[in-house]
Amino acid sequence: MVHSRKNTKSFLLGKKKSLLLAVGFSLFLLALHSGILYESSDETLNTGTTSNPVPIHYSTQNTIKSKDINKTLSPQTTIEAIPSESSPTKTHHVQPFTSNYWPWKHETIIELPVDPKYGVHVSDRSYFHNGVPMYKLPSASSLPSSSSEKYIAYLPHSQFNNQRISLENAILLARYTNRTLIIPPLFLGRTQLPWKPFDVLYSRLQRLNKTGDELCSLPGNDERECLEFYNRWTTLRWDEIFGGIDLFCKEEGIRIIWANSMSLDWIKRKIHVKDSDIHYLRDGTMYGAKVYDDPKSQTMLGVYAARLDVDKLKSVPHKLLYFESTYGIERVLREKPANNAFFNRLIRRLTITHQAVITTANKIVSRLGGQGKYIGVHIRGGDSFFNRNFPSNLRILMSQLHTVYNLTTSPKKTVLKYRDTKKCLRQKNLPHPPLYVATDLVDPRHEKASRPLFRNFSCVVLLDDFGPLLKKLDNYKNKRDKLSLKPFLIPMVDMLVASQGSIFVGTPGSTFSAFAERMHETLVKQDDEK
């Protein structure tokens, strides 16, 4: 934990400055709530195809060298973003997340060993076979094969749902290759950790360790803002959120190691490997290798750069395969029936089990009349990508409510009469069930873009309407950094409540919506079928 150093100036703050700081801190907490699980702009759901997006309703032992590259990444630096389906090479300008502080202002890149045969980009290691770019890997003959245990590791990045997708894919890869999976920590909050090429992403992950205050003491860093950044994120083990993952892996014969860090030093000590035992799968692009479980598959690559057959992956002799990224909805195919069945079992077990989250969500569900007595909605618009598409996404959502679910808008008098949440939830004669809206918008009731939803439906409720029920979350702190877990758990509560309506309507392309729909399938639809 990084601790602030007190100085005499802090005692001379006037009332006006204190008030400004208090207001600023309140706004900070509000923004934090808005962006922890509700994904940032690199969280768009990419199905792996190049077609235009369509309206979606989700139904179902060399020393590691370091070199200061003297490169300053300012908040306006153009970086590669995770591409949308219609624009696979689009870039955007990074927006500052807090005042003028940028966490990678003084960036030192740790240069990991590079095998010249495979380079640092997927294009360096691709060859064509029957017109299809194939991903080149070391063969069994290139290195004496070890009979000892072999491993898979990968670098996590982005927000909660992208990390979840990466984890699911990594578990599939562990099954396909019979390797032990090294699972990284789950990063929650505003880490400013989008996908980047291997060395950059690896280096940034090493900085996210909350050990000492040397980073915040570097020249040019505002210490207060730097410390604020370090208090905006935390790490957990995945089984603290998905309690069933450990037992599932044991039942399925998947061997796992929980990593405290993705540091090579830590990994080498833990599994007893040296540099020559490691093969890095460097892609240099967000969508590099697409893994095929069926060698006869004719599935197109889509946005991915090269094909990688599981048989080739299984034949790599190195003890550790270290992936740059395993993110992507279609990154790892499961076209063989046994693999698809395994994945279905996996996703049924990867559900939120954190007791405080479940208890809080259930209390709110009860206030809404019980499971299946309301309609769950997710509207995403708190970042630039979804903000641009917000009007059209809202029209799609309202159209679905009108036509697909035969939900009519309410007369103006009815809307005004039941605008008060307590009143509308007590009424028995509403023209439609209550709408519970999960959103990353800061003030959806008063924002112009979202106003049509509240004007057209008589009983629209938000998580903020149940503030007193969230107090139980105050009791939970992370034992590692002593931070309150409340702001990191609140979006999970929001998701669980939205997913337990009679139906769920999400935002096209949102991984939050996709996961909420999955939870809906597990919590509501399966209960209905029993």
From TrEMBL:
Question: What Gene3D superfamilies does the database record attribute to this sequence?
Answer: 3.40.50.11350
Coiled-coil portions: none
Transferase as a keyword of this entry, yes or no, is: yes
Under the heading Pfam families, the entry gives: O-FucT
Which domain of life, per UniProt?
A: Eukaryota
**Keywords, sorted A to Z:** Carbohydrate metabolism, Fucose metabolism, Transferase
Q: Which GO terms describe its biological process?
A: fucose metabolic process
The yes or no answer to whether the keyword Transferase is present is yes
GO MF entry, a single one = transferase activity
| UniProt-recorded name of the protein | 6602_t:CDS:1
